[in-house]
Amino acid sequence: MGGPEIDRLIGMLARLPGLGPRSARRAALALLRQPESRLLPLAQVMEQAARAVRTCSTCGNLDTSDPCALCSDLARDRGLICVVETVGDLWALERAAVHRGLYQVLGGTLSALGGIGPDDLNTGSLFARIAQGEVREVILALGATVDGATTTHWLSEGLAKTGVAISRVGHGVPMGGALDVLDDGTLAAALAARRPA
Ligand SMILES: [Zn+2]
Hints:
With 197 residues, the chain is an alpha/beta fold. The protein has eight helices and seven strands. α1 packs across α2 and α5 crosses α8 (184-192).
């Protein structure tokens, strides 16, 4: 279509999760319609983020420091860990300011179809933290999907051996990457309505 630069941009965008060739073309066009004064700073910010952002080795959050700002915040309740599927879920809970403890981001759920097994989930640092003895309760805030439920069940079994209290958020709440669409009140209610798993 256009020059090789445009093709390359479309090709890179098409590799992003959730963007097929068609939406990649649309996104490329939307970007290229921007004046240079807006596009170049965007490219710069993306480069800076790519260089600076890392995954917190304690909880799996994204931040420019490791451990992340949340894990380093001594004002937070270190005895309470909320397990979520994605960083997006963590952001939603933080925006709603409904959880004052720490997090564990699994990076997904067990999925037979998706070929995701226990080893693919970020749980090692959760058990390591529990082994250190600071954790008193783990809240499982995973999706109400089949995979979410399977993961909740599997994690509860593993956690039961550690002796920490295990709870799960109220059923019917579309957690798991979908926390984003919930309003703060619903999120607060879901967390308050947690019950032993
Ligand atoms: Zn962290």
